[in-house]
Specification:
The complex is a heterodimer of chains A (274) and B (70). Chain A is an alpha/beta fold and 274 residues long. Chain A has a single domain, classed as TIM Barrel (Alpha-Beta Barrel). Helices cover 38% and strands 15% of the residues of chain A. In chain A, the strands form three sheets. In chain A, strands 5-4-3-10-9 form a five-stranded parallel β-sheet. A three-stranded parallel β-sheet of chain A has the order 6-7-8. In chain A, α2 links the parallel β4 and β5. The longest helix of chain A has 21 residues. With 70 residues, chain B is mainly β. Chain B has a single domain, classed as Ubiquitin-like (UB roll) (Roll). Helices cover 10% and strands 40% of the residues of chain B. In chain B, strands 2-1-5-3-4 form a five-stranded mixed β-sheet, covered by helices on one side. Classes of the chains: A alpha/beta (274), B mainly beta (70). The interface between A and B is medium-sized, with 37 and 25 residues. β4 of chain A pairs antiparallel with β5 of chain B.
Chain lengths: 274, 70
Protein backbone atom coordinates (compact mmCIF):
# COMPACT_ATOMS: atom_id res chain seq x y z
CA UNK A 1 0.00 0.00 0.00
CA UNK A 2 1.38 3.40 -0.92
CA UNK A 3 2.11 5.64 2.06
CA UNK A 4 3.27 9.20 2.05
CA UNK A 5 6.64 9.92 3.66
CA UNK A 6 6.69 10.78 7.35
CA UNK A 7 6.93 14.50 6.79
CA UNK A 8 5.27 16.40 4.00
CA UNK A 9 7.14 19.08 2.18
CA UNK A 10 10.55 17.41 2.31
CA UNK A 11 10.78 16.63 -1.34
CA UNK A 12 13.71 17.10 -3.68
CA UNK A 13 14.11 17.64 -7.40
CA UNK A 14 16.33 16.29 -10.14
CA UNK A 15 16.24 17.75 -13.61
CA UNK A 16 12.99 19.51 -12.81
CA UNK A 17 11.30 16.33 -11.57
CA UNK A 18 9.93 16.47 -8.02
CA UNK A 19 10.51 13.38 -5.89
CA UNK A 20 9.28 12.40 -2.44
CA UNK A 21 11.22 9.23 -1.75
CA UNK A 22 14.92 9.47 -0.97
CA UNK A 23 15.56 5.79 -1.58
CA UNK A 24 16.62 4.73 -5.06
CA UNK A 25 16.56 1.04 -5.85
CA UNK A 26 18.44 -1.17 -8.27
CA UNK A 27 16.64 -3.98 -10.06
CA UNK A 28 19.37 -6.60 -10.47
CA UNK A 29 19.68 -9.95 -8.75
CA UNK A 30 16.19 -10.52 -7.37
CA UNK A 31 14.92 -14.08 -7.01
CA UNK A 32 12.06 -13.40 -9.41
CA UNK A 33 10.29 -10.56 -11.23
CA UNK A 34 7.40 -10.74 -8.77
CA UNK A 35 9.74 -10.32 -5.79
CA UNK A 36 11.27 -7.34 -7.58
CA UNK A 37 7.83 -5.83 -8.06
CA UNK A 38 6.93 -6.31 -4.40
CA UNK A 39 10.27 -4.91 -3.27
CA UNK A 40 9.76 -1.79 -5.37
CA UNK A 41 6.40 -1.33 -3.71
CA UNK A 42 7.72 -1.95 -0.20
CA UNK A 43 10.63 0.44 -0.69
CA UNK A 44 8.33 3.27 -1.81
CA UNK A 45 11.06 4.26 -4.22
CA UNK A 46 10.35 6.53 -7.13
CA UNK A 47 13.56 5.86 -9.07
CA UNK A 48 14.76 2.44 -10.13
CA UNK A 49 17.93 1.72 -12.03
CA UNK A 50 18.07 -0.49 -15.11
CA UNK A 51 20.72 -1.49 -17.61
CA UNK A 52 21.48 -2.58 -21.14
CA UNK A 53 23.04 -5.79 -22.29
CA UNK A 54 24.42 -7.14 -25.53
CA UNK A 55 22.29 -10.08 -26.43
CA UNK A 56 20.94 -12.13 -29.23
CA UNK A 57 18.51 -13.93 -26.96
CA UNK A 58 15.20 -14.83 -28.51
CA UNK A 59 13.64 -11.83 -26.94
CA UNK A 60 12.24 -13.00 -23.65
CA UNK A 61 13.21 -10.82 -20.72
CA UNK A 62 11.41 -12.97 -18.19
CA UNK A 63 8.81 -10.26 -17.79
CA UNK A 64 11.32 -7.89 -16.25
CA UNK A 65 10.50 -4.82 -18.28
CA UNK A 66 6.74 -5.18 -17.93
CA UNK A 67 7.03 -5.82 -14.18
CA UNK A 68 9.17 -2.75 -13.62
CA UNK A 69 6.99 -0.48 -15.73
CA UNK A 70 3.89 -1.71 -13.91
CA UNK A 71 5.44 -1.06 -10.53
CA UNK A 72 6.61 2.38 -11.59
CA UNK A 73 3.21 3.37 -12.93
CA UNK A 74 1.69 2.70 -9.51
CA UNK A 75 4.05 5.13 -7.85
CA UNK A 76 4.61 7.83 -10.45
CA UNK A 77 8.17 6.56 -10.50
CA UNK A 78 10.88 6.67 -13.14
CA UNK A 79 13.63 4.62 -14.72
CA UNK A 80 17.28 5.54 -14.40
CA UNK A 81 19.34 3.61 -16.99
CA UNK A 82 23.00 2.97 -16.25
CA UNK A 83 26.15 2.51 -18.34
CA UNK A 84 27.39 -0.40 -16.25
CA UNK A 85 30.33 -2.25 -17.73
CA UNK A 86 31.67 0.65 -19.77
CA UNK A 87 35.40 1.23 -19.51
CA UNK A 88 35.84 4.36 -21.53
CA UNK A 89 34.12 7.66 -22.07
CA UNK A 90 33.42 6.65 -25.69
CA UNK A 91 31.70 3.42 -24.65
CA UNK A 92 29.65 5.16 -21.98
CA UNK A 93 28.55 7.90 -24.36
CA UNK A 94 27.41 5.41 -27.01
CA UNK A 95 25.56 3.32 -24.44
CA UNK A 96 23.91 6.38 -22.95
CA UNK A 97 22.62 7.38 -26.38
CA UNK A 98 21.19 3.91 -26.80
CA UNK A 99 19.64 3.97 -23.33
CA UNK A 100 17.95 7.28 -24.06
CA UNK A 101 16.31 5.76 -27.12
CA UNK A 102 15.35 2.44 -25.54
CA UNK A 103 14.11 3.76 -22.22
CA UNK A 104 12.83 7.11 -23.49
CA UNK A 105 14.51 9.15 -20.80
CA UNK A 106 17.34 11.64 -20.72
CA UNK A 107 18.35 10.48 -17.26
CA UNK A 108 21.56 8.48 -17.20
CA UNK A 109 23.47 6.93 -14.32
CA UNK A 110 26.96 7.33 -15.66
CA UNK A 111 29.40 4.54 -14.79
CA UNK A 112 32.86 4.26 -16.28
CA UNK A 113 34.85 1.51 -14.59
CA UNK A 114 38.53 2.06 -13.95
CA UNK A 115 39.43 -1.10 -12.05
CA UNK A 116 37.95 -4.59 -12.38
CA UNK A 117 38.55 -5.53 -8.74
CA UNK A 118 37.12 -2.50 -6.99
CA UNK A 119 34.84 -1.42 -9.86
CA UNK A 120 35.73 2.11 -8.92
CA UNK A 121 35.22 4.72 -11.59
CA UNK A 122 37.92 6.09 -13.85
CA UNK A 123 37.76 9.78 -12.95
CA UNK A 124 39.29 11.06 -16.19
CA UNK A 125 36.97 9.09 -18.48
CA UNK A 126 34.04 9.80 -16.19
CA UNK A 127 34.46 13.56 -16.34
CA UNK A 128 34.90 13.49 -20.12
CA UNK A 129 31.80 11.36 -20.64
CA UNK A 130 29.83 13.60 -18.29
CA UNK A 131 30.93 16.68 -20.21
CA UNK A 132 29.78 15.28 -23.55
CA UNK A 133 26.50 13.89 -22.25
CA UNK A 134 25.54 16.99 -20.30
CA UNK A 135 26.14 19.05 -23.41
CA UNK A 136 23.92 16.62 -25.35
CA UNK A 137 21.03 17.28 -22.99
CA UNK A 138 21.32 14.33 -20.65
CA UNK A 139 20.57 14.64 -16.94
CA UNK A 140 23.79 13.03 -15.74
CA UNK A 141 23.92 11.11 -12.45
CA UNK A 142 27.63 10.25 -12.16
CA UNK A 143 28.75 7.32 -10.03
CA UNK A 144 32.00 8.59 -8.52
CA UNK A 145 34.28 8.19 -5.54
CA UNK A 146 34.41 10.57 -2.59
CA UNK A 147 37.27 12.54 -4.16
CA UNK A 148 36.34 16.19 -3.72
CA UNK A 149 38.26 17.53 -6.72
CA UNK A 150 36.74 15.03 -9.13
CA UNK A 151 33.33 15.83 -7.70
CA UNK A 152 33.86 19.52 -8.35
CA UNK A 153 34.89 18.81 -11.94
CA UNK A 154 31.77 16.73 -12.47
CA UNK A 155 29.60 19.58 -11.29
CA UNK A 156 31.56 22.04 -13.42
CA UNK A 157 30.89 20.05 -16.61
CA UNK A 158 27.17 20.02 -15.90
CA UNK A 159 26.26 17.01 -13.81
CA UNK A 160 22.90 17.33 -12.13
CA UNK A 161 24.13 15.82 -8.90
CA UNK A 162 26.84 13.54 -7.51
CA UNK A 163 26.70 9.89 -6.46
CA UNK A 164 29.81 9.04 -4.44
CA UNK A 165 30.27 5.46 -3.38
CA UNK A 166 29.90 4.33 0.20
CA UNK A 167 32.10 1.31 -0.55
CA UNK A 168 32.74 -0.96 -3.55
CA UNK A 169 29.63 -2.09 -5.40
CA UNK A 170 27.96 -5.06 -3.75
CA UNK A 171 30.44 -5.20 -0.87
CA UNK A 172 27.91 -4.40 1.84
CA UNK A 173 30.60 -2.62 3.83
CA UNK A 174 28.55 0.51 4.44
CA UNK A 175 30.28 3.88 4.54
CA UNK A 176 33.97 3.04 4.27
CA UNK A 177 35.07 6.67 4.53
CA UNK A 178 32.44 8.67 6.38
CA UNK A 179 34.88 11.50 7.07
CA UNK A 180 35.38 12.08 3.37
CA UNK A 181 31.65 11.94 2.75
CA UNK A 182 31.12 14.43 5.56
CA UNK A 183 33.71 16.69 3.94
CA UNK A 184 31.92 16.44 0.59
CA UNK A 185 28.69 17.53 2.23
CA UNK A 186 30.42 20.45 3.93
CA UNK A 187 32.38 21.60 0.86
CA UNK A 188 29.50 21.22 -1.61
CA UNK A 189 26.55 22.51 0.40
CA UNK A 190 24.38 23.27 -2.64
CA UNK A 191 24.96 20.02 -4.50
CA UNK A 192 22.52 17.13 -4.47
CA UNK A 193 24.50 14.21 -3.03
CA UNK A 194 23.44 10.57 -3.19
CA UNK A 195 25.42 7.72 -1.63
CA UNK A 196 25.52 4.96 -4.23
CA UNK A 197 27.08 1.50 -3.76
CA UNK A 198 28.40 -0.51 -0.89
CA UNK A 199 25.43 -0.15 1.42
CA UNK A 200 24.63 -3.42 3.20
CA UNK A 201 22.32 -2.66 6.09
CA UNK A 202 19.52 -0.20 6.79
CA UNK A 203 21.76 1.39 9.44
CA UNK A 204 24.24 2.29 6.68
CA UNK A 205 21.52 4.09 4.78
CA UNK A 206 20.43 5.91 7.91
CA UNK A 207 24.04 6.93 8.55
CA UNK A 208 24.33 8.39 5.06
CA UNK A 209 21.17 10.39 5.56
CA UNK A 210 22.34 11.56 8.98
CA UNK A 211 25.43 12.99 7.26
CA UNK A 212 23.09 15.21 5.31
CA UNK A 213 23.10 13.32 2.04
CA UNK A 214 20.01 13.80 -0.04
CA UNK A 215 19.31 10.17 -0.92
CA UNK A 216 20.81 6.71 -1.15
CA UNK A 217 20.89 4.19 -3.98
CA UNK A 218 21.29 0.50 -3.29
CA UNK A 219 20.62 -2.84 -4.95
CA UNK A 220 22.38 -5.88 -3.51
CA UNK A 221 21.45 -5.10 0.09
CA UNK A 222 17.81 -5.66 -0.81
CA UNK A 223 17.96 -8.06 -3.76
CA UNK A 224 20.35 -10.53 -2.14
CA UNK A 225 18.92 -10.44 1.36
CA UNK A 226 17.02 -13.41 2.74
CA UNK A 227 13.73 -11.51 2.42
CA UNK A 228 14.03 -8.75 -0.17
CA UNK A 229 10.53 -7.38 0.34
CA UNK A 230 10.96 -7.07 4.09
CA UNK A 231 14.43 -5.59 3.60
CA UNK A 232 13.08 -3.03 1.13
CA UNK A 233 10.56 -2.03 3.77
CA UNK A 234 13.35 -1.72 6.33
CA UNK A 235 15.42 0.50 4.06
CA UNK A 236 12.39 2.66 3.37
CA UNK A 237 12.10 3.43 7.04
CA UNK A 238 15.85 3.72 7.63
CA UNK A 239 16.19 6.39 4.97
CA UNK A 240 13.26 8.31 6.41
CA UNK A 241 14.61 8.00 9.96
CA UNK A 242 18.07 9.15 8.96
CA UNK A 243 16.64 12.06 7.07
CA UNK A 244 14.50 13.14 10.00
CA UNK A 245 17.45 12.77 12.33
CA UNK A 246 19.51 15.07 10.19
CA UNK A 247 16.68 17.60 9.92
CA UNK A 248 16.17 17.47 13.69
CA UNK A 249 19.82 18.25 14.31
CA UNK A 250 22.10 15.57 15.77
CA UNK A 251 23.90 16.31 19.01
CA UNK A 252 27.67 16.63 18.66
CA UNK A 253 29.83 13.73 19.83
CA UNK A 254 31.93 14.30 22.93
CA UNK A 255 35.12 12.70 24.22
CA UNK A 256 33.80 12.75 27.78
CA UNK A 257 30.56 11.99 29.59
CA UNK A 258 27.88 14.63 29.87
CA UNK A 259 25.26 13.68 32.46
CA UNK A 260 21.78 13.76 31.09
CA UNK A 261 20.24 13.96 34.57
CA UNK A 262 21.25 17.22 36.29
CA UNK A 263 23.02 16.43 39.61
CA UNK A 264 23.58 19.91 41.07
CA UNK A 265 21.26 20.51 43.99
CA UNK A 266 20.07 16.91 44.13
CA UNK A 267 19.92 15.27 47.59
CA UNK A 268 22.78 12.95 48.39
CA UNK A 269 21.80 10.02 50.59
CA UNK A 270 25.21 9.49 52.14
CA UNK A 271 27.13 12.61 53.15
CA UNK A 272 30.70 11.46 53.70
CA UNK A 273 29.65 8.33 55.67
CA UNK A 274 30.89 4.98 54.41
CA UNK B 1 20.66 -12.30 -56.44
CA UNK B 2 23.05 -10.23 -54.32
CA UNK B 3 26.22 -12.05 -53.32
CA UNK B 4 26.40 -12.62 -49.60
CA UNK B 5 28.75 -10.59 -47.43
CA UNK B 6 30.17 -11.43 -44.06
CA UNK B 7 29.58 -9.30 -40.99
CA UNK B 8 30.15 -9.84 -37.27
CA UNK B 9 26.92 -10.03 -35.31
CA UNK B 10 27.44 -9.93 -31.56
CA UNK B 11 30.97 -11.14 -32.14
CA UNK B 12 30.06 -14.06 -34.39
CA UNK B 13 30.48 -14.24 -38.15
CA UNK B 14 27.26 -14.08 -40.11
CA UNK B 15 26.52 -14.00 -43.82
CA UNK B 16 23.92 -11.59 -45.06
CA UNK B 17 22.81 -10.53 -48.52
CA UNK B 18 24.70 -7.59 -49.97
CA UNK B 19 22.60 -4.46 -49.58
CA UNK B 20 20.93 -5.60 -46.35
CA UNK B 21 20.05 -2.65 -44.20
CA UNK B 22 20.42 -2.59 -40.45
CA UNK B 23 16.64 -2.31 -40.14
CA UNK B 24 16.17 -5.43 -42.25
CA UNK B 25 18.71 -7.33 -40.19
CA UNK B 26 16.90 -6.44 -36.96
CA UNK B 27 13.63 -7.63 -38.47
CA UNK B 28 15.20 -10.83 -39.73
CA UNK B 29 16.41 -11.58 -36.21
CA UNK B 30 12.84 -11.33 -34.98
CA UNK B 31 13.05 -8.10 -33.01
CA UNK B 32 10.62 -5.25 -33.21
CA UNK B 33 12.33 -1.93 -33.97
CA UNK B 34 11.76 -0.57 -30.46
CA UNK B 35 12.84 -3.73 -28.68
CA UNK B 36 16.57 -3.35 -29.24
CA UNK B 37 19.25 -0.72 -29.51
CA UNK B 38 21.80 -1.03 -32.28
CA UNK B 39 25.44 -0.18 -32.73
CA UNK B 40 27.60 -0.60 -35.82
CA UNK B 41 31.37 -0.54 -35.53
CA UNK B 42 31.12 0.72 -31.99
CA UNK B 43 28.81 3.62 -32.74
CA UNK B 44 25.16 3.89 -31.75
CA UNK B 45 22.77 3.94 -34.71
CA UNK B 46 19.45 5.56 -33.93
CA UNK B 47 16.29 3.65 -34.79
CA UNK B 48 15.30 6.18 -37.44
CA UNK B 49 18.60 5.76 -39.26
CA UNK B 50 18.63 1.97 -39.53
CA UNK B 51 16.65 1.86 -42.77
CA UNK B 52 19.15 4.07 -44.48
CA UNK B 53 22.22 2.16 -43.30
CA UNK B 54 23.39 -0.56 -45.69
CA UNK B 55 25.71 -2.95 -43.95
CA UNK B 56 29.16 -3.47 -45.47
CA UNK B 57 31.45 -6.48 -45.40
CA UNK B 58 33.33 -6.58 -42.15
CA UNK B 59 30.88 -4.44 -40.22
CA UNK B 60 30.47 -5.30 -36.54
CA UNK B 61 26.85 -5.14 -35.39
CA UNK B 62 25.73 -5.26 -31.78
CA UNK B 63 22.18 -5.39 -30.46
CA UNK B 64 21.28 -4.33 -26.92
CA UNK B 65 18.22 -5.09 -24.81
CA UNK B 66 16.92 -3.69 -21.53
CA UNK B 67 17.99 -5.65 -18.46
CA UNK B 68 17.83 -5.32 -14.72
CA UNK B 69 20.61 -3.19 -13.33
CA UNK B 70 21.97 -1.58 -10.20
Amino acid sequence: MHREPLVDGDGWTVGGVALRSRLLLGTAGYPSPSVLRDAIRASETQVVTVGLKRTLASGSDNGFVAIVREALAERDARLLPNTAGCRSAREAIELAMMARELYETAWIKLEVVGDEYTLQPDPVELVEAARVLARAGFVVWPYCTEDLVTCRRLLDVGCALLMPWGAPIGSGQGLANPLALRALRARLPQATLIVDAGIGAPSHAAQAMELGFDAVLLNSAVALSADPVRMAHAFCHAVQAGREGWRAGLIPTQDFAVASTPVAGQPVLLDGEP
Amino acid sequence: MNAPISIALDGKDREIASGTTLAALVATLGFGPAAVGTAVNGRFVARGLREGLQLQAGDSVLLFQPIAGG
